[in-house]
């Protein structure tokens, strides 16, 4: 009985952590967040060492471009964890309805950009995380 309980608890914990872990997504590929939203992240200019911009397009379930969600972005080098790390920043939207995330890849190597998609808080509801995307970039 105790063993069964332990296994169910383990499955529950693994299930929950799988839910919040980052999904690896490809640059330029449309990815479904849930039944309501999908997105695409791309570099309008080929990413290189130094400053650049990651542009994110968000669509609702009808395929209309929207800015309904909050996106928090951060980036780091996996092989140098912590050395370039930053606190996640709110990704601002442009007049044309894109989310524009400024990046600065300070050296050559493999970088990972993390994007956290959250619902916006309203008077009655708290903001909640829907999805975390991990994007690999080779500089
Ligand atoms: Cu580095």
Helix content: 10-25%
The rounded distance between the terminal residues' Cα atoms is 53 Å
Q: Hetero groups bound?
A: copper (II) ion
* SSE succession: HEEEEEEEEEE
Largest β sheet strand count, sense and barrel closure:
5 strands, mixed
Query: What best-fitting shape do the alpha-carbon axes yield?
Result: globular
Structural class determined from secondary elements: mainly beta
Strand portion: 35-45%
Oligomer: single chain
Low-confidence runs of at least 5 consecutive residues: 10-19
Number of strand elements: 10
Spatial extent as radius of gyration: 17 Å
Properties at a glance:
139 residues; five-stranded mixed beta sheet; five-stranded antiparallel beta sheet; 10 strands; 14% helix; binds copper (II) ion
């Amino acid at each position: 009985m105790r063993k069964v309980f332990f296994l169910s608890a383990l499955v529950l914990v693994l299930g929950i952590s799988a839910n919040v872990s980052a999904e690896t997504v490809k640059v330029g590929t449309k990815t479904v967040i849930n039944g309501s939203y999908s997105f695409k992240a791309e570099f309008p200019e080929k990413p290189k060492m130094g400053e650049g911009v990651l542009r994110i397009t968000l669509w609702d379930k009808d395929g209309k471009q929207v800015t309904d969600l909050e996106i928090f972005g951060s980036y780091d080098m996996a092989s140098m964890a912590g050395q370039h790390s930053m606190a996640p920043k709110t990704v601002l939207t442009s007049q044309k309805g894109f989310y524009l995330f400024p990046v600065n890849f300070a050296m050559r190597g493999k970088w990972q950009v993390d994007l956290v998609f959250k619902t916006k808080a309203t008077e009655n509801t708290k903001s909640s995380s829907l999805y975390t995307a991990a994007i690999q970039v080779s500089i």
